[in-house]
């Protein structure tokens, strides 16, 4: 007997980049066993205190060597709201016309964000939707939220961590299904140089073209709250270091920006994760 399946339909890829550039980029439909989909909704909460990136309540954080963010950043990952939504009035108003699925996704993201702030000792407050549809973090904190097919994560940090190590000006976090982009869309996302690099990595089993999308989104989300600069995909250059799980970001159009951008990526449970941290002097280790 064939197992029953639930289909994740194609839909526009959510993007932070300039409207019109990425509207045609879509998730590829895939079939997921119903038992797998049900299991995903019951997955445990993952609490992450950087520099360790992935740690569950049932396994020591030190066993996982991935490092999405530097010291001072907290990442919280959830796949469900076990005890219901707990949105603030401002947040409820922002979701007044949203579908029930979108409200749930939004509430999941805000829950992750408030838990991350709580771990940092921050306030439990509303995280409103800003003018540009971006989350508005409480004064003295920066952060980023991402959603992907039932997966949700939020990262947060104090702008001034308190130990004098560095100033964290921005965080960007993005997640995508680990599936390749269609070739013609990869050419929209990637520069000629990046496309050449992609050709050299064919056959290694990693959907690098979508990871480029993910990494560029994370860089954009990291910078936009401070710069409000709208960028095309090709205005953000990314160079991966597969052995280190890191990437470098170049921004020719923002050449005078006094930023040190740390990019890192990971692939877990068919989810691509990319993180960018904007750091200012003194430099962090």
Summarize the helices and strands and which ones pair or pack:
Blueprint: E1 5-8, E2 30-33, H1 34-41, E3 46-49, E4 73-78, H2 89-94, H3 100-119, E5 141-148, E6 151-158, E7 167-177, H4 183-189, H5 192-200, H6 208-227, E8 237-241, E9 246-250, E10 260-268, E11 271-280
Antiparallel strand pairs: 1-2, 3-4, 4-6, 5-6, 7-11, 8-9, 9-10, 10-11
Keywords:
single chain, 285 residues, alpha+beta, Ribosomal Protein L22, Chain A, 5-stranded antiparallel beta sheet, 4-stranded antiparallel beta sheet, 11 strands, 25% helix, 26% strand, globular
Overall description:
This protein has 285 residues and is α+β, with helices and mostly antiparallel strands. It has a single domain, classed as Ribosomal Protein L22, Chain A (Alpha-Beta Complex), CATH 3.90.470. Helices cover 25% and strands 26% of the residues. The protein is built from 6 helices and 11 strands. The protein has a 5-stranded antiparallel sheet. A 4-stranded antiparallel sheet has the order 3-4-6-5, with helices on one face. Strand 10 and strand 11 (271-280) form a beta hairpin. The longest helix is centred in the middle third of the chain and has 20 residues, at 100-119. It is globular and about 50 Å long. The chain starts with a strand and ends in a 5-residue tail after the last strand. Residues 1-15 and 18-65 have low confidence and may be disordered.
